[in-house]
Amino acid sequence: MIKTQIILAGIGGQGILFASRIFSELGLKLGLNVLGSETHGMSQRGGSVLSHLKLGNFHSPLIHTGAADILYSFAEEETYRSLKFLRNGGVCFVNLENSKRFDPAILSHLKGKKVGFRTFDANEAAAQIGFARSTNIVLIGYSVGTGLIPFVYDDIKSALESVSRKKELEVNLKAFEIGFLKGKS
């Protein structure tokens, strides 16, 4: 039985809430309990957005410091703020154009905690399909491709199909596929 705690972090306009909907739908399709909570700050003005999502048998929606299994960060600066949520042995996926920019002291700390740290330029990949707003979906696809999360391609694709508007479905599926293929390579 899957029991997973996910943090999704970014800034307003990056699709954090849509990404949360994808994972919520996934949980429901898998027959799991779904609990979640979001903080929006000044999200309309590029402020921080943080979503807590629990899939499985949990009693409260908020994820405690050091308890998250997965962290998705759609903006580098939000990664620094959100890393505290990851547990030892968790995995972090960061939308980052150049992983060498990331603070080496923090990378060393994460290595000591056995945190899987993966960066991918989801902005660039989304721009290649001409739909910059799909960065969130590209990063999710990338994470599935790595095999480091407890969810499989078909299940997330099905959830994405369920929550996408008809007019955006084709580009969303393309974004997911591009990320997935990059994660596998």
- Unreliable runs: none
Tell me the number of structural domains: 1
Number of strands: 6
Read across the widest sheet, the strand sequence of neighbours is 2-3-1-4-5-6
Distance between the termini: 28 Å
Q: Please state the second-level CATH architecture.
A: 3-Layer(aba) Sandwich
> Helix segment count?
7
Superfamily at the CATH H level? Pyruvate-ferredoxin oxidoreductase, PFOR, domain III
Give the percentage of residues in beta strands: 15-25%
Q: Which fold name fills CATH's third level, the topology? A: Pyruvate-ferredoxin Oxidoreductase, domain 3
Q: What string gives the helices and strands in order? A: EHEEEHEHEHHHH
Question: What top-tier CATH class fits best?
Answer: Alpha Beta
Morphology call: globular
Mean pLDDT across all residues, rounded? 93
Measured on Cα atoms, how large is the radius of gyration? 15 Å
Structural class from helices and strands?
alpha/beta
Major sheet summary line:
6 strands, mixed
